[in-house]
Every structure is written in C-alpha cells, then in structure tokens.
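User: Hey, quick favor. My workstation is busy. Could you predict this chain's structure for me?
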Amino acid sequence: MKAVKVMGVTILASSISIGAAIFGQRWIEESPMLERLVEHGPDQLRTLPDFHLMDVQDREVASNAWAGKILVLNFWATWCTSCIDEMPMFIRAQEALREDGVQFVGIAADKAQDVREFLVDHPVSYPLLIADAEVIHMSKRLGNRLEVLPFTVIFDRRGRRVYSQIGGMTAEELRVELKPLLPESTKL
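Assistant: No problem, here it is.
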C-alpha cells in the first residue's frame, strides 16, 4: 500500500511541476512587459539618440542631420579587418540607394588622424564620424552588448531602430533588412 501512495504522490507532484513549467513558459512568451525586459533590457534604445560627433574634417555633425532618411550606422575601426571587408558593400549600397533616402554613416572607434590616413588608400562615399566614450556606450544601448566591431544599426525614416547586428554584414543580410523600408520600385 505504501508503494502505491508513493507512486501516486510522485505522479501528482510531477504533473504539478510539468503544468507549472508549461504555464510559466507560456506566460513569459505572451507577456509583452516581460518580453521587453528580456529582449531589450531596461536601458535599450529603440530610437535614434540625439548625438553630436566630429567628422574627419573636425566639423561637428548632429544625428538629426539625417532626419527623414533610412539611416545605417556602422561602428568600425581602421584596425578591424571585418569592418574594412564590409565597407565596399556599404559604399556600393550608398551609391545605389542615395536617391531612395538611404544614408550610411560610419562611426570610427579611432583617432581622427588615423581615419584620415586610412581614407588616403580607402576612399569612402559616406560620412565618417569619430566616436567618443559616450557614443561607445550608446552602441551598447543600441544592441552591441558584446561591445565588438563591426556593429551595424538600421533606423527607419521615423528614427526607429529596426535592426542591429554584431559582426560583419553580408550583402544579402543588408538587402533583406533594407527592402521593407524602401519603395517597391527600388531594385536591390
């Protein structure tokens, strides 16, 4: 008789545990509040932050300079091989999509002089800005939780963050992310 009671209690306890686990998982998956906390964290930026950085000619540029455009921010450095590898693709995309309101902007985690020297052998057709400590922290809040380079963030025309990627991007990944933001007539 004891064995039957032990078996019954074990089955009951197992059923309660499994039921609680299933209910808890569904509750977490369906809770928008918890989803926001888990997926984005309390300090995550969902829109283009207001920032002012110096370009390679030592002119201050504000983030609102590209208001109303699809903005592709790429955090990079002259010493980052993966960063340099994806730059020709960004240059081609900038040239092809400029008329459709797409703006690429590179934010270099370098000294301005290093970037100027880099540009001698590697011309770039989009603006390059020089990062400061605040903007490095901003990249983390935009999704660069590992604080690595390259890191790319895409904002729609209303300044909403729609995509971020740690590591190098491929042309196909860029195409997939930009396509829904562009007019249907745009060929990618």
